[in-house]
Amino acid sequence: IRDFELMKQHNINTVRLSHYPQSRRFYELCSEYGLYVYDEANIESHAMYYGERSLSRHPEWKEAHMERTVNMFERNKNHPSVTFWSLGNEAGNGINFFYTYKFVKDQDRGLMDRPVNYERALWDHNTDMYVPQYPSAAWLNEIGRKGSDRPVVPSEYSHAMGNSNGNLDIQWEAIYKYPNLQGGYIWDWVDQAMEAYDEQGRLYYTYGGDYGVDTPSDGNFLCNGVVGPDRTPHPAMAEVKYVHQNFAFEAVDLTTGKIRIINRHYFTHSDAFHFQYNITENGSTVATGELPVTLAPQHSAEIEIPIAGITPKAGGEYFLNFEVTRKEATELLPAGHQVALEQFRLPLEREREQYASNIVNPGWKVTEKSEVIEIKRSQLLFRFDKKQGIVSSYKVRGIDYFDHGFGLQPNFWRAPNDNDYGNGAPARLQVWKESSRDFRITDVKTYEEGNKMVLEVTYLLAAGNLYDVKYTLYPDGIVHTASTFHSTDMKEEKITASEATLTATYSPEASAARKASSILNVPRIGMRFRLPVTMEKVSWFGRGPGENYIDRASGSKVGLYSSSAADLYFPYVRPQENGHRSDTRWVALTNGKKGLMVLADNTIGFNALHNSVEDFDSEEATHRPYQWNNFNREEIESRNDAEARNRKPRQTHINDITPRDFVEVCVDMKQQGVAGYNSWGARPLPEYTLPANREYRWGFTLIPLDDLRETREKALWSY
């Protein structure tokens, strides 16, 4: 029942039975709770591929195809929830599928005359719908514009392997825009891994490669669900819920508060739901109201929210938020369950005013030694280690904010996610891992600027370009950090894909995706530092509450949120990049009261975890073997660790992740997207990447806090 609860909670209304029928009870529950079933015959001969070797083209295999199709149809034909039939999956197309198609069409014509589909039929006659696999948003828009002679419903898309599902929102923009596009089936529902416990009693989940030496394995490739093995929803489920919601809100004129509400339901009236709105100023509610919405299914109406009385203040940012909740409980959902939300940024904000310290003569003292520069004044110490290339101490009013000297330093690397490994990023972009350690300093200088002290540092990165950091120290301990990433013309390393990878599944844009640009991209442009372990309480004004990334953020709205470094961590079955929050105005890390605020010049992304970037980087787990396929003896005998380095992930698990006695904070101008069209070559879209042949300027301010409540006032200033 938990699966049905989760699907209903996240606006999922249909399930594809991949790649075989389920138990009878499953169909009964789908009929009871209301899920459309895409029933699929247990036919797949993927290993024979799709040409002349395909079993679908050989008459001697006709009986085997027919038996499985007949069994599915006769067994399940009377279940009301069965809405579509599928002839199988990834088995090529030929005469045997022409026979199975004709059988189902002939038999069902006197019953419900349901559509019969088959993915490998493509546009051939033996599929009533076009059900491609892994199309991009661009392809969906193209087929939407061109039109089609049958509905288009991807039978697999948005491959959910690990930290994934990027671009789902723009795929659904196309689906809602064009009537011939009618939804899709995310691949897939649950991480298929087995619960286990290590010798210390710690839980982890086993996957391919854990079941014996030299055993054939696909590694963690089956860990590609939107929920974990224990049914914990992945953070991407916030995006899934948002794109599937059945009420839409469109801005008609935000200057007057005019909004169009659309009831996307086909059978349900809006009277079954409560509609509420609120207006926030820097995350705090300043107005709220109920909306008397009366909309029949597939109808829309315009409303007007009273915003004329709001006078924006300096540093104020205003959002109009909508929420739709159920009036009454259903069998699986409680009354008050949120079914839809939306947010609009109002054109009301005013720029922040410039901050100025009232300390006229701060009495700065600068001490420069061979390896260290120290900047001091009353109750302030700022130490830069020239040898390491990092800020090793930042001490204000007796509190040293950096743990064990691990202070501000450039950071261009993230722990590769599963899609990164699929597209070769760890090898292609290795130069940025090198650029995030063993820093080479080419210039350091200090000078006074009014009542402030400035420290400028220039780094020569491994990619051959420069990275400038300007630290501006205010007399009261505030530090503004301004950075410039200078461009580089270095090209990325070429990564080839195997034939098996290239033909693993049909994708309408697979060829174009493989012709990716040779321009070198940067995984992230940022800084990182470590705070004492006690400063683990996290508050922020940005997108949340859950993990989100620049290409998976539409379901995560801007607001005030609070959590902890422990709870910001998400345990993907194979550890990888996790816990990021994007579009952040400020984040504060405290011990419950005192702490440090990071205020963005514009917006930033951040991670704040009890582990380092390296802890989640598979390649750093040198005590674990690589994920070998072991498909044949020749492959086993030719295994080469040197060739696998940065090309294959290692066999790591969540019990390899032990919380450390610090909080590592990564502050990013931007981190590239997680991608998600597929996990065997698709990269983040260009708009969600950081091409290294451009210049980037960005900044943020570190503000010591005596009380978390100070953030509201501190955030109003520009530093």
Describe the fold and architecture:
With 719 residues, the protein is of the alpha+beta class. It has 3 domains: 2-233, Glycosidases (TIM Barrel); 242-348, Sandwich (Immunoglobulin-like), CATH 2.60.40; 372-611 and 659-718, Distorted Sandwich (Beta-galactosidase, Chain A, domain 5), CATH 2.70.98. 17% of the residues lie in helices and 29% in strands. It is built from 17 helices and 32 strands. The strands form 7 sheets. Strands 20, 21, 22, 23, 24, 25, 26, 27, 28, 29, 30 and 31 form a 12-stranded antiparallel β-sheet that branches. A 5-stranded antiparallel β-sheet has the order 15-16-17-18-19, with no helix packed on it. A 4-stranded parallel β-sheet has the order 1-2-3-4. Strand 5 (194-197) and strand 6 (203-206) form a beta hairpin. Helix 3 runs parallel beside helix 4, helix 5 (137-146) runs parallel beside helix 6 (168-177) and helix 6 packs parallel to helix 7 (237-244). It is globular, with a radius of gyration of 28 Å.
